[in-house]
Design a protein that fits this description.
- The protein has about 270 residues and is α+β, with helices and mostly antiparallel strands.
- α1 packs parallel to α6 and α5 packs across α6.
- The strands form three sheets. Strands 1-6-7-5 form a four-stranded antiparallel sheet.
- About 25% of the residues lie in helices and about 20% in strands.
- A hairpin with a 4-residue loop joins β6 and β7.
- The longest helix is centred in the C-terminal third of the chain and has 20 residues.
- It is elongated.
Length: about 270
Amino acid sequence: MPELPEVETIANGVHRRIHGDTIRSAWLSSFKQPFKTPPDAMASALAGRRIDRVRRVGKHIVFDLANPRSRKAHSNQAQWLVHLGMTGRLLVSVPEVPLPPHTHAILHLASGRELRFVDPRRFGRLALVHDFAGPGHEPLTISRDEFAALFRGRKLTIKAALLNQSLLHGVGNIYADESLFRARIRPTCPAGRLTRPRLDRLRDALRSVLRAAIRAGGSSVSDYVDADGSEGFFQIQHCVYGRQGEPCRVCGTPIRRIVLAGRGTHFCPHCQH
């Protein structure tokens, strides 16, 4: 599933290409799985809206939409919410390019381009919402005090806590593993027993890893591509994720993989304690 850096990369790429454009019409497939809002209602509401901004909130992509035909402020407040699920993609294209298989939504834009939502496994979701803020705290802007307070008294492991979207939205398996390695914290440590200095170190590591991954365009380890269909390349900087059995880049100890909170978890048994 795309995590914060991948979703940020896609949102920024889509924004650069289509912000300010107007949705002339919307086509939605007959599969019900991707739609949290009824397709007919969604298509009707999207038509005529101007795309003012495309941004990331957690693992969601939010389209801030305006209604240029209305003078009422409350009529301008609408958002199209896209969750990519496991295999979802947003592609900006021209109509002449053949539609990829498993295309479930097309926004026809006034510029003549199209925004296509493609999702082979249909775990993604599309919805119309208002004032979406996400389920948890934003990892890139959370303060040290707020970060430490999230884990106070919690008995679950720190890896499970990092994956809890109601605490920190946007963090997934890859960046939880990578940030714990850089903070030198074993993923099995109980979250509530970590000292304040170790939590401060983890917050700094998490923010550093996420920003580096955004600069690299995310990690392409499965189906992820950006709005142009291009892969990211942060995977070449992974220190532990997907490197089980390979030597640690710091100490040479083989990287271990265990299953924790139902997820494959990678760590160095020497560097992380």
